[in-house]
């Protein structure tokens, strides 16, 4: 039987491709969008990580989700530095969540409060993605909009306290394999992971509508 880390990865593979090839992501990575679109996307991430990381504090001692909560993953402070760079010191004033972002952040908050195992699905979908494909996005962003390498504007993608992401991901997969959940609960986590991908794709769709390429 496949390990749980493999099950969750395989189950979300198709949706991963869908997210990766969404119009907004393709345009962003293709260098076809302005820095404003990137800033708007970064703002949406702020809402998602605000929900994830407010929940993290409370879940640190939870028997199921607790082992996943690691301070070296926390992204909110980096996002805030990026936003100050992208939008200026008054970045909070203009900050607004798209409806799809609000739905996503609300679901994360709901899981953090009522269902720690479901929170793991959201944790996995974001942080393991950031540690993987996030590095491709950072590289593109630096080249397209001229941010300093690993500097302000792309700090969200830089895990200063994780010098070896591959090793970290291996450790993370071991945590997934050892998750304290029975088979039915594991199935529910996988379903929540698929939901997490769908919530991300919905945000991309909304961003794509806000930043269409003039044909
Ligand atoms: C254009 C955008 C993206 C690119 C280029 C990309 C690329 C990648 C790559 C190269 C990996 C590494 C696979 C491996 O370890 O062998 C990965 C893993 C992952 N990505 Fe993405 N990705 C993108 C978008 C996303 C999005 C939007 C999400 C979800 C929010 C996501 C979630 C994940 C997750 C959870 C993993 C870990 C899979 C696992 O090993 O269990 N990715 N991605």
From TrEMBL:
Signal peptide: none annotated. One of its GO terms (molecular function) is heme binding. Heme b binds at residues 9, 16, 124, 173. GO terms for biological process: heme catabolic process; heme oxidation; response to oxidative stress. Pfam families: Heme_oxygenase. It comes from the Bacteria. Keywords: Heme, Iron, Metal-binding. This is Heme oxygenase. Gene3D superfamilies: Heme oxygenase-like. SUPFAM superfamilies: Heme oxygenase-like.
